[in-house]
Amino acid sequence: MHDVIAKQAVAKSFSDAAKDYDTFARFQHQLAKRLLAMCPQTNKQSILDLGCGTGYCLPLLNQHYDNATLTGADIAPGMLDVAKQAYPKFHFCVADAENLPFENEQFDLIFSNLAVQWCDDFSQVLKQAYACLKPGGHLVLSTLADGTLDELKQAWSTVDQHQHVNQFDDEHDLKFMIESSGFTIQQCDIATLYDFHSDVRGLTDSLKRIGAHNITDGRAKGLTSPQKVKQFMQAMESFRQDAGLPASYRVLSCCLVKPN
């Protein structure tokens, strides 16, 4: 179980990052395309992009399902403001994945790319999605598991005992919640994927610029001293590879079906 997520901090963090998000979210965009390949080929009429952010996936989903009605939902109003300007033809709604404001059996497909890891209870996310899907509807989702950004955790552990990196659910717990959700599992994969950066500042700045820095209630308060930052940067260099400094992501991706 991860630490309690400070949801107001989540919404503010991602709202503040909205204007620059797509410039820095290269890994999120790459994973979105991988997740789209998991979507069912059957026709879908009503689709929810849950945690849509700036709306990057909406036109991709529209290409995949050209006759569908698409709705983008996100907890961060600032993200939705950017999405509305970029993609005015779609519908948008401020929504918390653990308390969805939609009718039962409203959607044929719920798509969610790297969003629900910012929720406290993954089983509640699954319960809400199940209720909002029509029988035979699909939930296609990716989320992060423990082991994500492990290089940063290890580097900071050489500096102090504060929590500098978000903590995510154990992958076995995530799989158990999926198996207990009532969904039929069509596909469920977990893999460690990497995003490489030329230097430490580039890596940490990219996390800040997409709003994904530490936003749990257990995070350290106050500024970190320049000396500790220097120690952290030196410790990070031990992870350097030919491609650069890695940011690892332990990603669970699944395609689930609500039984008829």
Short description:
It contains 9 helices and 7 strands.
State the main characteristics.
alpha/beta; globular; Rossmann fold
Count of DSSP E strands? 7
**Overall 3D shape:** globular
CATH C-level class is Alpha Beta
Measured distance between first and last alpha carbons:
32 Å
> Helix- and strand-based class?
alpha/beta
Order of helices and strands: HHEHEHEEHEHHEHHE
- CATH fold-level label: Rossmann fold
- Calculate Rg over CA atoms: 18 Å
SSE order and pairing:
Elements: H1 7-24, H2 26-36, E1 46-50, H3 57-64, E2 69-74, H4 77-86, E3 91-94, E4 107-113, H5 122-132, E5 133-144, H6 150-157, H7 171-179, E6 184-197, H8 200-209, H9 226-236, E7 245-257
Parallel strand pairs: 1-2, 1-4, 2-3, 4-5
Antiparallel strand pairs: 5-7, 6-7
What does this structure look like?
The structure is a single chain. With 260 residues, the chain is of the alpha/beta class. It has a single domain (7-148, 166-195, 248-257), classed as Vaccinia Virus protein VP39 (Rossmann fold, 3-Layer(aba) Sandwich). 37% of the residues lie in helices and 23% in strands. It contains 9 helices and 7 strands, in the order H-H-E-H-E-H-E-E-H-E-H-H-E-H-H-E. The chain has helices spanning 7-24, 26-36, 57-64, 77-86, 122-132, 150-157, 171-179, 200-209, 226-236; strands at residues 46-50, 69-74, 91-94, 107-113, 133-144, 184-197, 245-257. The chain has a 7-stranded mixed beta sheet, with helices on both faces. The two termini are 32 Å apart.
